[in-house]
Structure formats: C-alpha cells, structure tokens
Description:
The protein has 368 residues and is α/β, with parallel strands linked by helices. It has 2 domains: 8-29 and 272-362, Aspartate Aminotransferase, domain 1; 37-268, Type I PLP-dependent aspartate aminotransferase-like (Major domain) (Aspartate Aminotransferase, domain 2), CATH 3.40.640. The protein is 40% helix and 15% strand. Helix 7 (170-182) links the parallel strand 5 and strand 6 (186-190).
Amino acid sequence: MTGYDEPLFQQVVAYAADADRDVVGMVSGDPDWGPPPSLREGLHEAADASADDLQYPPSPGLPELRDLLAARHGVSRRRVLVTAGATEAVSLGVARALSDEREGDEVVVVDPTYPYYPAQARLHGGRVRRVAAAPDGGLDEAAVREAVGPETAGVVLNDPNNPTGAVYDPDATRAVLETAADHDALLVRDEVYDAFDLSGRFESALALDAPDPVVVSAASKTFAVTGLRVGWAVVPECHVDALQTRHLLTTISASRPAQVAVARALRETGEAYADGARSRLRERRDRFCAALDAVGADYLPPRGGFYVLADLPGVAGDLASVERLIDDAGVAGMPGDAFGAGAEGRVRFSLTTARVDEAGARLRAHLG
C-alpha cells in the first residue's frame, strides 16, 4: 500500500463490530485504564464555568496550560502551541516544512510508519521518501542521513514508535537532527508515546544538544483520553508565528473545556499514574508475547508505546487476512501493510485492552 488511501483503521473496527461473534479488539490505541481523577474533576470544573469561560480561548492555548507544558518541556510559553490532538500538531509541522518560502518538496519518513505521516505530506503537496527502519524497528541513522538532501523539506520521526515499538537511540536521533538542519529541512518528531517508554532509554529531542525540531505530544495517550483531542507542539522560535497562524486558520483553537481538564491533570497528577500505566503495559506485553511465542510467531519485542507487530504463521497481514482472523479467531488487529513495506506480512496488535490473555488463547487455539 503506497499511503493512507483508505480509512483502514475505521474499516477494520467496523468489520469487527459487525462480526457474528465476540471479538477482542486490538486495533486502535484507545487506553482502557481511564484518566486520572484530576482530569475528570477538571471536566466538571469546566462544565460549571461561567458563560464567558465557555467561549473561544486564546488560539495558541490557555495560558495556564501553556505554562504547564512549557515547564514540562523546559521551554518558553511562546514556543508551546496547543492543538486539536497530536494529529493537527504533526500536520502543522509538515505543512510548514512544505511551505512555499522553503526549499524542497520531499518528506522523509521511516518505514514502517504511522500512515498519517505520508498522507499529510501528500495532502500538503509534498512527495514522500520512505527509508527502511533498522532490523529491530529502530532508527537506521546512516540510511536516514543519506536520504536527506537538497530536495528534503522535512523529516518525520516517531519515538517511541508506532507500529514497531522501538525506542530510538538518542545519539542516532541527534545525528539525524543535525543532518536535517544542515539541509534546512524541518524535522517533526512525534513523541506522543513519551510516557510509555518501557526501555528506560527514551530521551526527548528537546533534551538533546542538537537543533530544535517541532516536538509533538498529546493528552490523548498520556492521560488515556483520546476523545478530548488536546495535543501540543513545541515549536522552534523561528517557526512560531507561521504555525500559530496556520493553526488559527485551520481550527481556531482546541476545545476550551478539554484544555481546562488537561491543565488540571498536569497540575495535580503524580508519577504513580504513569508508573501504573507502564506497569500494566509491560505485563500485558509479556503475556501476549508469550502467546505469540507459543504459536511460532516472529515479532519485534516492543520497548515502548502500545503495540506489538507480529508475523503470524499462515496470516498474510493484509486486510483480507485480518478480516479472516476476526471471523475465525475472534481477534482484531491492524493489517501490517497499512504501515508500509516494512510491515508487510505482519499484523499490529494494540495492548490497550484488558483482554490480552483471551486474545492470546484464541490465537493459540486458531494457529497452534
């Protein structure tokens, strides 16, 4: 598959919902453990606000939320732009890379890749250059640096990675940042799974001694509220005005009540919440991977994020085979070929369900 030409996520979810049997859904990264109490309290606070406090917020985001995010990332408030989810933040970065006043029309992505990245590049008039990931699903520093050249407008990296579960080596990231800067290419780094590093080696690009990229994250995964649609971009100073203007013209602002709730969660939620989520994911990963071992599957051991990318015996990894897996085994995953050539023949499973043991048992019964 050359890009995100069909809404495969929604297509697979809809197929599973219409199945004639019970299906364990492992398609989407919708965390099942729920948000911290402080976020729910923030929603109540927003709902009880005065009429004035339910109107348009400042387009770049509520000052309190931006201040909390600035402190979290060690930057000034001016560099923080609150967006309608991480998807908008990435799109703004890609659009800026491909803007008329900048050179180049090519966006480099690491294959396999989250399908929205190449789709956004094409949406904004760019060409996509795919560079194969390292064998462990990580960043092949030499290959990416070689791909960056005069035609490169931007580079998109995702760490921790969806779909491979890799956590990139910080030195490799630093080298790619420097190469991108040497060619005046804007690097966009999606760190939306930064709270779910299971390896202990994740470092934000903002912590590296390297040229600043656009760094993206969101409350969606961090606080298990994908429906609130609150993300943010930390933007290099030279691009702040351009991204704020495009954001204003695209969405005006992110939801004010949602921003109030996320600000309260950032202010009041302790490390125990994230520690619990990581512990839960680690346990689910280990149990599900044991089931994959039992059926002789080949997979990339995930070191971060929500997903396991597996080559199942007798499963082609395309849409038709995933639909058969739903019908015959009662387990729904994402076709690997939706993520590019590097995931062809594989199925991506999300660990954001409490039913991973049941899914593993069904796969063993079906494939064992």
